[in-house]
Amino acid sequence: MVNLLFCRIFINRCKHVRKITLPFIIFALISQISFFTHATEEGSWYTVEAAYIEQSARYTQRRVGYYTYNEIQLPESAELTDSLRLVITQTSHDVLNADGIDENAQPYFNVNSLDDPIQVFFQTKRAAFAYTAELQQFIVPQADAWQFSYDFNTNEIQTENNNWEGWVYPAQNRGVMSFVAAAGEDGTAVYAYEDTSTNTNITQNGIRFNNRTNKDNINPWTEFLADAQGKTLQSVSLWVKVEKAVAGNVTVRHNLIPFPLIDDRKGPTLDAGLAQGPEYEMVIPAAANNTWVQIEFVDTKTDLKQFTIPDTWVHYDGQSAIQVYPQILFDGLEVGDKVYIDNYLIGEQALDNPCCEPVEDNGNSDSGSGSQSGGDSGNNSGGIDEPDYNLGDELSFNYHFDDNDIADNQGSQGWIYSIIDRGIMAFEADAGRSGSALSYTDNSENINPEQNGIYLQKWRDNPFTARFSNHGHIINSVKLWVKTNLTTEKDIEIIHYLLPYGLVSGNKQANYPAAVDASTKFVGVIPAGSSDWVEVELVLQDSNSGEFIIPSTWFGYDGGDLNIYPEFKFANTEVGDKIYLDDYQATSVVGEPLPIPTDFTIDYNFNDATVAQNGGWGFVLANYGTIGLEEQSGYQNTNAIAYTDISENENINNQSLLWHKWGNANPWSLAFGGGTIETEIKQVSLRVKVEKGQGNTATNDIVIKHHLLPWNVTLDGGKFGKVTAAQAISPDYTANISANQFGQWIDITFIDANTGLPTFSIPDTWVLTTGSDITDVLPSFFFGGLEQGDTVIIDDYVLQGDNALARSADTGPDEPAHDYGLHDGSGTYTNNPRPTPLPITDSDFYTEPTNFNVTRDLVQDYGVNNADTVDDTDIMQQALDEMSTELGGGKLIIPAGDYYFRSVHLRSNVHLEVEQGATFYMAQGGGWNVWMFEMGNDNEGKAENFSLVGLGDGFTIDLSIDRTADQNERVAVFKMGDIENFKFANFKINDNKTIFASFLVGITERDNDIHWPVNGIIENIDQSNSLFGYGLVQMYGADNILFRNLHSEGGITLRMETDNLTMKDYGKGGIRRIFAEDIRGTNCLAPVMFGPHFQENGSVQVNGVTATSCGFAVRVDDGFVELFSPAGESYTRDGWRTAVEDEIGQGCAAQPYKRGVNQWASRINPVNNCLDVVHQKYGLKPGWFEESYIYNVTVINGQNAHLKQNQLDYFSLTNPNCNNVCLPTTEHWSRRGNVYIGPAIGGVFDKNEAGVDYHFNINVYNLNMVDFTEPYHQIIDSHTSSQRVCSYYGVPDCPDDRWE
């Protein structure tokens, strides 16, 4: 029998993952026992956590349905009651003939014998098949004994949020908690705590069981002790094993904390509970290290083992239930030391022979405030062990540049460029003062020193992070040895920053400037005429003392890691100047630790504001007013934003300003996005001036309302619906301007009209429709009481807040999201049916221009001859550049005729309208990988607000005639990078089986970051003669794009394969919020393809897919991780596989394949241990898509589908003689065997399934198969059988007409 007090209530939380190689066996000892089919005693059903349900293949019984056999496997140590049942917790198909339905409306089957598999029947239907099951046992509570035990056999470690339910840390980043199987004193599982910090404060080193008071209780201490006032705990014991590198005493402290006894913030409330609870301790002496011992605690407040629960253990409101948090803390540990704990017991009698006696500590531990640590850390030790130090210690730090730490690229670890293409960095072996050095050579005429330099980007094993993230330490000296080789003699200035990287949410584009702003600046001068090594003292700027105290504001955003990146920049250099760096030294003093600030400010002065419906200040509803940027008309002659009423309508909801800006460029999103529930807004103020229109005499108050709109709390109703839903849960900040204040600047402080207070606490309702944290918050202003012609000018907005209580959104009763890659990837597959598609509104994707500054004609105004074959690229580029930069944008008309373009760069605010009858050809020229049109790539900067649209029946882009000097198959049409608010529509593309999709919706690298297309529409495009593996659209990175009415003959129409290697380097990219309608393919691989590779992607919706003679209508590949051999290093296939397995683990590397020139790629086998190592070493994990939806799929049979070699084996059911399958010749395609032509195979190819790590769910609704004869494949999944029936290289050659 299982002791009730060991049981944990986790019904509906059982996770099933791939079977692991532990010695699970059928529990034969009790296999012949018959069990009761139901329980008649008073008790409860509990999940048997140790049980594993082995599911058989799926079978079919005529006139009944599908069925499976379910074998229950248990470890030998499992103890069970007599009443067992198998519960189907989740299922894609209805369960038939169950023995009953449980209290959660889940079907169950009584288990009469563990020796017999349980047969479960399911209703048949055409859908992906998956289910999960768990074993439950009925337990009758024990009546008399008042005791409690907890065995640590269930993994309840909270990995997602340190404020959520489960075992958490009193202070993060002091140690690492882990669940260790079969390591206990009784052979069962235990918890381990490993010290990873030099911090010695006992109150911060350990673990605590957390359970929010507004959540269902899963805390067994609360069940046992919350209502136990007046009862006495006679004995509290714990099994402990201490592993220390150097033997020493270790103190174990145990608190029982009643919560909440007072109504205050969490910290003071915990302190109040600590004061009312016992403070048990026991010291494990050095002699008892490295062995299991059972300790019995003594309350240090009374020196007694007993503790009587006082009457003060009551909720502060006098009515609600309290929680009782157990806390177990450790002192005397050093970095790397580990403590194991097992079998906690509150007993009625003292132990007969416990280990250890209360002994005096030898001074190695400190149970006080921890001030001896001399400063808290900015959330990261950098992976380097710092020495122990005390307040006032003088420290010396040295960095010698002796290792070649130059990064492979801007996204990798190592020394990188502050701005690329300004200089050349090199590792100078044996060229330093005593070893090696690092050099930087200026190769640019740029004279801005802030762009001329290098910094050490290192997030692992970074000694600068370890030393300079200690709050309160005082840096008093920084020196560097330098040597120069200059083209002309002059002083060279060295600028040095210690960049606190990780202060804000987002990528490098946000974090690098934030780090520069927060960093201290040291400056030194290399005097002219210095020909040898000189020591330069780097002097702190803007400081009278010359000392810098590391501030507590250097703290990782949202509790994440903060890294310190040293940066060196060079002023007064010219092209050819070379500077050598060596022997960096900094001295510091250990200062008093500083508290982490929780207050923050949004200070927005409108100086850099823009007016735009997409990317700037615009309207909620247009045509009621005008918005303008008032240059030098703001407070104290700064810029400001003005709103002028142009309508007689007096409804305040129509007179509006809304900032249409998303992401890290929006300070409101930075402050309130990503987990800020319970953040408090203290006050919001604004400077305002009201100017009455000419002849307006009304003296009523002008009302200004201000809302902070959490965006996408609904997806209904377009922009107005999103605004309305957000207003309902936003503060209704209101202020009035009286008539006697008109015409002057007034400082207003907003008051929430709902509460009458200036404060507002972010509520739980600030969540996305998915239940996850808000990403963006858009500020809005509304103006009431205006007359037509009145103007309101706003400036100097200030919001003050406090995020001490900030937390992530509660996503409901289900388990929190996983840390994919470490632990498991089981949470990637979700099941949220959506039988009808979400509505589409074009304005959510693209904002049409309302007017044009100018209209120009490419022939009439710029002199292009559209009747010749001359290259028109230069004239076209001149027209685009002039209209964008000199004329403020406009419309460029391209008349009917022939045009020859090559690498034309589309520009912001220029809209191209192409007349019917125009044809674009690729102009002659050299190069490798050539596009006709490019936009927003490399260092050209962002392109926004532009379009290319065909008029009438559209125009043609013709790649069928190759006019390159040497035939080049690597040509395409559109290379899309950092672009926003764009539209491409209404034309045909005559392809030439070129490599690359015509639309490369890609990424570009610029300013130490990557960028990709955002907000656009691509529609009404028909492409012919596509190459099998490419086609019309390829997406790497994309946000919020609509694809509509697209067709490709051959290849793939909409290919969502996110495999760009630069995204891997930066750890970001992928696609999100993708919508598509009417996607068609003919003689193709598939109209729609999902291929995540290593990238985490958002959700996709496709409504309408038609596949005519294609391999499949929808192809879904699963994600994976692969490692590439280093560029420039020579490996064989087997050599690279061996190298990968030496680093990652034996059996982890799949057979490598060739990628590029002399480079090999090896996929990592989908084994959790292998994936964990890759994630820890490289930050990589298999990719996936958020749950996505495809509607109304039509699959029409045909004989000229493009097929991959590994798909031919599915003909074993539908075409066992391999009829009508042919292989293109080498004249057709040089890489023979890449593609075949033959009959269509089926509707959907998708081997993802629930319960498999990193798999994901693509829902397909209304799949229609046309002109197929039985048998045929509607869906090919992981259960579909196949065998080789085609001779891969023995099938007939394809005739020309089937290839062409």
TrEMBL record:
Highest taxon in the source lineage: Bacteria
Keywords annotated in UniProt: Signal
Residues spanning the signal sequence: 1-39
Region (Disordered): 356-387
Stretches with biased composition (Gly residues): 371-381
Residues annotated as transmembrane: none
Low complexity: bias regions: 361-370
Name by which UniProt lists this protein: Pectate lyase superfamily protein domain-containing protein
